[in-house]
Amino acid sequence: MTALSLLILLSVGFATGVMTVAAAFVQAPPRLADIVGDPRPKGVPVRFAFLTAPPADLGLAGQTPEAFLLQRIVFATIGALWVPLLAVVLALGDVAPPVILTGALSLATAVVGWMLPAASLKSKVARARAELRGALACYCRLVALGRVGDRGPVEALRYPASLGDGWTFRRIRDAMDETALLGEMPWDGLQRLGVATGVRELSDLTHVVASAGRDGASIVTSLRAKADSIEQQLSAERKTGAAVRSDRMDLPLALLGLAFVVFLAFPGVVTMLTT
């Protein structure tokens, strides 16, 4: 057995073992008796929690810890396998790459595959939080209008949540409905939503509205100031992101120019070296 064949067998065995471990984390649909008997949520064991992502990020992306971990394992397995398979194809054409190089590249692509879902999740969460904060600014203005129209603090919070139809307002509306079912105040739902999504501005809004509900203080000015602050911060972040994307375009343009120069100079250089 050649070294390359041994490496391929080891890669296949490694992938099989990883997929077997991943299958252990995939839960079957729960039975009603199990849910009633044990209401505690099931998830990835605590000792493997570092392999997943923060619950707030996963909640915003609509992923479970198990699904995210399985995605990372699958991507890492694909990354580990495609290099040996490519080496087999090259070996069939009598171009066998060194075993050490094949193993190093296989490990590198496995690491890249492991990191890709985390990078994709980070991008999705950043966009989702920006959308939620933008909706929160609009929500603050609607609540302020309700207070100007003599709505009570509770009604001023609940009514605007029913006006929007996007996922951001739906999350706020669900938080309001949950507090109504639990017999709590609406700002308690906003507090939980802020913790669940990692949006600090929701917690800040909770403190403003809760103080008005307890002390009867006017919050119209505070709500409008909070909306202005959120919009200014989002505008600054958009400008910063646009500047970063503009700077990133410099490298591809430089590489394109370098490739064009090499393309033009290559025939002359080859002619000089062969004569």
Automatic annotation (TrEMBL):
Q: How does it sit in the membrane?
A: Multi-pass membrane protein
Could you tell me the keywords of this UniProt record? Cell membrane, Membrane, Transmembrane, Transmembrane helix
Q: InterPro entries in the record, alphabetically?
A: T2SS_GspF_dom
| Record has Membrane as a keyword | yes
Provide the transmembrane region boundaries. 73-93, 99-119, 253-273
Chief localization class? membrane
Localization in the cell:
Cell membrane
Domain annotation Type II secretion system protein GspF: ranges = 140-265
User: PANTHER family per the record?
Assistant: INTEGRAL MEMBRANE PROTEIN-RELATED, PILUS ASSEMBLY PROTEIN
Entry protein name: Type II secretion system protein
